[in-house]
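Discrete fold record:
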Amino acid sequence: MSALLKHSEKLRAWWWHRQGLDSATTFSSAAAVFQKTGWARSVGGCGPYLTLYSRAGISREAADQAVANLEIHELPSARACTYVVPAADYALALCLAQNAGNAEMRVAEKLGVTRKEIDKLCQAVLTSLEKGPLDPDDIRQATGKAWRSLGPEGQKKGLSSTLPLALGELQRAGDIRRIPVNGRLDQQRYQYSLWRPNPVKLSEFTAESSIAELARRYFTWIAPSSLSDFQVFAGVSTKAAKAAVEHLKLERLSGDDDLLTLPSLREEFESYKPPKDPSYQFLTGLDSLFLLRSDITSLVDATDLLNPLLSLKSGRLTGLSSPAIVDRGRIIGLWEYDPASESIAYGVFVQKNARC
């Protein structure tokens, strides 16, 4: 019997505990939450706010103030995806984004855009921002003929002009940062500002060392986990993933599975006892509890896997159709917010009680 099956209830509760969802961990700030439990995936939604509220009771207003104070910031990172990360990890996140490459530039080159053209536009953007933050329309006006439309063909490929290419490159390099127009993380309207000092230039990360550092964080946030799950999260090859974890001296949870843990956490895991009383949390589908693994089947009780609310494919659950209700690490239902009635609609797999 694998460790996953043998310890399913304990593992789920342990992951819940490591993610700070059991109120056992005290967080001093929004930055501390992201440092200890993982970066919050941001796609213009409420995810980062729910991450902070579910773990530390941090309000939206307090989270927005942390953004304004540059204690946390939304940045491109692993796999070129955007995350809200703590200040201590700005350089790491940006170095990982550089590792991910620039897929948009490869598309643009097929449309006739040259490297020299984008370099010239990048310089024009930096010059335009010397007097202060600007929104994209102001940057277009300030940079004049340095940018150009890519026409209908570019629009088909998701590139209306060359300006997004330059803005993306300058962000990954740490030369500029984008600022939410109204200070909120749940919208996607931005101004851009010069970033001084540039966090990337203050760091000594290489392509290899940044992935190794991400591995250390990953197995702190969510271990025991598999090498393949880390590989998917980091967006790297199997060879690169193996090289990244080598310095961690990871140990198998048991001899017959692929779950790996840091040696420093093994004793704590072995002595950990799951709480007896229910503890419910409403989480987004992109919460770190789910996002840090490519297969979330282990977070669902075997008796619930065939529930019509779940989309099980080939015996695996790789994602959720709606945000989840979780009890001590176990997904027990799904929920949605109904803006018309300003209420929550939900369905659960378990028998309702006074707290559910």
